[in-house]
Amino acid sequence: MAVIEVKDIYKSFGKTKAVNGVSFDVNEGRIFGLLGPNGAGKTTTIRMINFILTPDSGEVTINGLVASPETQRMIGYMPEERGLYKKMKVFDQLMYLTQLKGMDAGAAKKSIEYWLERFDAADWKKREINELSKGQSQKIQFIATIAHNPDIYIFDEPFSGLDPINSETLKEIIIELREQGKTILFSTHRMEQVEQMCDDICLFNQGEAVLTGNLRHIKSSFGENTINLEFEGDGSFLDKLENVRINNRSTNFAEIRVLNGQSMQDILKLAMEHAEIHKFERIEPSLNEIFISTVGEDNIKKAEIK
To answer: Between 20 and 30 A from 49 (CA), which of 12, 27, 218, 243?
Structure first.
């Protein structure tokens, strides 16, 4: 069942078309990723879902209701621009924000204390936000988003500013929320996190949704036309390859996308002539490669895969 329905929405600011005819559904109990470069229209779309902005045309519905102040209460929303009161103490702020979403004081206190413990932040209760580091403030913003226990969560670039350990903690909690049946939409430009977490994706480019659907189906539709190559020796042979695109190249590794019928056996033969091969693996393309293929200057296409 679609919890969030985005139906042919448009939004312009002056002469700039920020969102241009975007449609997608976010189904109940799934993690949905909005991907794309900065300025692609992700945040503007999220703000329309949250009724911070209204579309010039088209419609957004939440649980069948047109986006409104009423639907805002159904959502836990963490904006990209963090919005905490700098002079307010952590616990007081979390109590205020959680009760603002309709939770009674007793339940709010219990939930906040649980999440502060979960994030090793229990001893921050009496500290003001301006006394916290950026990463610490990010944790408090995340707790403020989830503490009132809504059924829908929207995170705009939730991993921005977090170190690897806290990023992993956040990822684990988002997956736990999904396992509880919650519906999660988040935007990011970090492809590896999407591959690890998302069920479905919508890829944005220049205000348009250029690729939408189930992540597993999208990856399989591109076929096993990518090679992971690990080697030891002179890697200059990679520069001699034709009809390929090389991604994630480093001293002893290359991800090679095979184009235009190029023979993988010929690639292997050339590699063996110049280096010691430790791994030659044919795989589905990474999401980064799909992103490049879909929105690259020479290959912009629209597709929807169910």
So the answer is: 218
Backbone angles phi, psi at 7, to 5 degrees: -120, 95
Residue 9 CA to residue 95 CA, distance in Å, equals 35
Distance CA 65, CA 92 (A): 32
Strands (E), the chain: 2-13, 16-27, 31-35, 57-62, 65-66, 75-78, 152-156, 183-188, 200-205, 208-214, 226-233, 244-250, 253-258, 275-283, 303-305
* Cα–Cα distance measured from residue 34 to residue 194, given in angstroms and rounded to the nearest whole number: 9
**Minimum mean pLDDT range among 123-137, 168-182, 281-295:** 281-295
C-alpha–C-alpha distance, residues 28 and 36, integer Å: 23
| The length of the chain, given as a count of residues | 306
Residue in the structure block whose two tokens are 């293929």 = 293
Residue bearing the bigger pLDDT, 12 or 303: 12
- Cα separation, 117 vs 166, whole angstroms: 14
The answer on pLDDT for 30 being more than 60 is yes
Q: How far is CA 225 from the centre of its chain?
A: 25
Task: Please state whether beta strands 31-35 and 183-188 pair in parallel, antiparallel, or not at all (unpaired).
Answer: parallel
User: Residues 141, 153: contact at Cβ < 8 Å?
Assistant: no
- Give dist(CA 9, CA 107) in Å, integer: 37
CATH architecture of residue range(s) 2-219: 3-Layer(aba) Sandwich (3.40)
Domain boundaries, the chain: 2-219, 224-283
Please give the Cα distance from 305 to 272 (Å, whole number): 38
pTM confidence score: 0.82
Report yes or no: 275 and 234 within 8 Å, Cβ to Cβ: yes
Cα separation, 221 vs 210, whole angstroms? 15
Percent of the chain whose pLDDT exceeds 90: 61
**Per-residue model confidence (pLDDT) at position 260:** 80
Q: Could you tell me which of 237, 209, 240, 265 has the C-alpha nearest to residue 9? A: 209
- Decide yes or no: CATH 3.30.70 for domain 224-283: yes
